[in-house]
């Protein structure tokens, strides 16, 4: 691809195969390059297409206005999320997270400390993102000498969570519904769950996207009625728990769970409840 304009050492503007403008980003990818030169990107890089012109313009502004060290931290954070945790994220996080980190550093320099009211919820319900947030504040300290704490790690985690959800969805609403469902399950089975277990973490991941659909009123396919009937008859206690969740969501969110949604909830509930019984 041909270099049309160099934004900084880590980004340049080019055209894709359809003649549309794109931004190519990667560590040192534009270093030593010249306008008009053909370049074959290697190593770790990201191409931002022009499907959203507003996003691209914001990205150009960030590259021009914010020191490139901030974008490098963002790029590493997202790389960890996608490659090590196998989670997909919206490209707009490259913008929002870079702006956030830059703003947090500038506020700290002015002596402004910000607490995160969702810290405990983030730590409990979004452990992967929170762990990445902790890694990110280490990077920030290494790069800028600023020692952020858990509150900032949780704020970074929130950007990663939003990037996996519909941006119109409130993370507060999603977290609230997730906790309500977990409380119903705990009450039904009269037990606490091992929050470090793989079964629980898989359930929380499923619950995150399930809660998003509910609070944003998105419908879900309904194709497994026969399988639902089989599991309903086999796992009576888990199905009874699902019925409580169905009633709660209908009463408080005016959302009707179809058989597919109930089926997947039932499967996860059966796994984590069985594991909890074996551990006690």
UniProtKB/TrEMBL annotation:
InterPro entries: BglG_antiterminators, CAT_RNA-bd_dom, CAT_RNA-bd_dom_sf, PRD, PRD_sf. GO terms for molecular function: RNA binding. It comes from the Bacteria. Keywords: Repeat. GO terms for biological process: regulation of DNA-templated transcription. Residues 65-170, 171-279 form the PRD domain. NCBIfam families: LicT. This is PRD domain-containing protein. It comes from Vagococcus intermedius.
